[in-house]
Records
---
Amino acid sequence: MDLIKALTDQYTKSELPKIAIGDTVRVNVKIKEGNRERIQAFDGTVIARKHGGINETITVRRISYNVGVEKVFPIHSPNIVSIETIRRGKIRRAKLYYLRDRVGKNAKVKEKL
């Protein structure tokens, strides 16, 4: 197990922000278009966090033009430039998949004070 840990330690990011389920986050991602690279932001609510270690992922959901869009981001990927927490959510569940069925104000998560 030490061999696996030694291999994965060099690829894990050392400084990660505190990301909790229900938080509204901004994920800045490197996008490669031809020979150019740019950074694109994706804002949304974290509805799931899976796996652990180098395989850890977060699922971020937002509503864009009245259509729900979900993206799964590997936290330790070199294409993830940064993850910023915009606001904290007050929730009592580990997964917020029920937000998929909700529309409008019902789909909001209360803010933690």
---
Amino acid sequence: MSTGQGNVVRVLLERVENLRKDKKIIDALRVAHTAVESARRAAEQSQENLPELVASLEVAGDLSRETGDYPTAEGYYIEALGWAESCDVSPARLGGLKSSLGGVYDLAGIPESAIPLMEEAVDLLRRVDPPMEADLGNLRNNLGMLYKDAGNFDKGEENYVKALEIFERCIGRESEDVAAVYNNLGGLYYAAGYSAQAREMHSQALEIRIKVHDPLDPDVAQSYSNLATVLHELGEDEEAVRHYETALRILESRVSSDSETYAIVSDNLVMLLRELGRERKAQGVEKRSQKLLRRAVVGAA
């Protein structure tokens, strides 16, 4: 790339990064489009400039995905991959692009397109030295979710377990990343009909989250609620009620920011109480939740 052209693209990409840091995403996206056009012109003059074009396309794809414009993000990533495979880019960058494109297909609800791309990304990132363990752990976790949603529980379990091994090795057991994977494994086992295993996974997620989070953190409430669901399935209804009640108390502190989760947990508790013949208590929980949800709606208006 000539000095002038190289400076223009570098200046534009630095501007994009600064705008992203300032959370000016729309402005950053506008500048990213300009960077892509500048890099395309440079690449037309010399193939030595292709790595800069790949970098610009990746940034524009990231921003388009962030704003929810999945078709545009897809186009940028596909173009970037096409150029990347014809020039000498690192396995890390190629793996990152495949993972990003797979993420777009995941968000767009096209798992059959997302899975093979993420599998290819795993293979590429495994070649990087030193290993990109955090990225590999996240990829494995995402693959676990995709396989689980597709009903392939064996492959889902395999990827979740590998994600656990990676996270426990590189960041330690007591971390939200590890807790999240245990939570996801619990969801997989529950969906597959293995409630006892689901209980153990959700119990471990809860144990870790209690240690690493504020007591009123919504992730703690999620683990209490998920464990309550499994306990009810196993017939341990008294424990299930207590766990739902704990989750509800935590979520009451943030009804205005997450009314949907609060309503779901409240409904689950009310249904369980009615199954147990505790109509009066069920009505009390129902009335309180309806009052808090109405208040949240008024506050948001």
